């Protein structure tokens, strides 16, 4: 039975025709006007003046996108897209790609905001839709990408990604945190817990010494360690950029490697030899007990970048290569906050620098 429903502040029509559900914006916030327009829409369908199935259904584009595109990208990116598609499906099922206009996207943004969703999440959802439209252009289903143009306009009014994190461990915080984890590993009587704490200690130290991303670290294989040249080979299938890179191993990193038990193909492995997915929760528990707040695993990588720039005084372009950033601008944006701290140090006196192997 034909019906109307609200999406944001706009009424839409829902009509079953030849076994298919058709949805269409009635372009009004008035229920009475929407009811009249619904009658006109139903009459047009019944008279054959409205062609059901014209255009390319969102559902068909989504299925093709998942089947062909999501299989070619990294698992983490594909997982993010699949999360966004759950939200997109609720709003765009029943529509053709040709029906998704700036007005429809604005309604989507409004509804998501009313649901309490953050700007960053909305932007990621729209990025997923934009990627789908880009694929649809390649398939010659559509000739334009309304999501991309909408995002460019939305960015000017604040629909942007969250600013880059500036949190990293000071030398004092690092020393205190690692000492606490080590003490627990030595004093815990439960063998499994003691093993897990030792692995946390080694993994956290190795992350600080190499700047590997979370997936790069926990997916690292022993065969990726080149001891002839003392460097880590980050394979392209693990790297976020999709490009292979090499990370030199410091003396401290080499010492850590010697302490990892070789229980499996993975450098960081559980007591049964399987790989870890992450170690964030135990890291945060230790940090919280010490009053070290707002710490994420990625901040260990940030710590590496800061040490390379501050302690080792490496040029930004070199650090960009070590971190595997796609462009030097990405590195400059991520570490711009250090410029402010550098100015403050010059004004108030710089603290003593500590070398990484001291």
Question: Mind sketching the topology for me?
Answer:
Elements: E1 3-7, E2 10-17, E3 20-25, H1 31-47, H2 58-69, H3 75-92, H4 102-114, H5 119-138, H6 146-156, H7 171-187, H8 191-210, H9 214-218, E4 225-226, E5 231-234, E6 245-248, H10 251-259, H11 280-289, H12 298-310, H13 316-323, H14 328-334, H15 337-348
Antiparallel strand pairs: 1-2, 2-3, 4-5, 5-6
Please tell me the overall pLDDT.
88
> What is the overall number of helices?
15
Level-2 CATH architecture of the largest domain = Orthogonal Bundle
Order of strands in the sheet with the most strands? 1-2-3
> How far apart lie the N and C ends?
76 Å
CATH class value of the largest domain: Mainly Alpha
What Rg, in angstroms, do the CA atoms define?
26 Å
- Please state the oligomeric state of the protein chains shown: single chain
The residue fraction in helices comes out at 40-55%
Please name the CATH topology of the largest domain.
hpI Integrase, Chain A
Topology, number of strands? 6
Summarize the main sheet.
3 strands, antiparallel
Low-pLDDT sequence parts: 351-358
What's the domain count? 3
Taken in chain order, the helices and strands follow as EEEHHHHHHHHHEEEHHHHHH
- What is the CATH homology-level superfamily of the largest domain? Intergrase catalytic core
The portion of residues forming beta strands comes to 5-15%
Judging from the principal axes of the Cα atoms, what is the shape?
Answer: elongated
Helix/strand/pairing category: mainly alpha
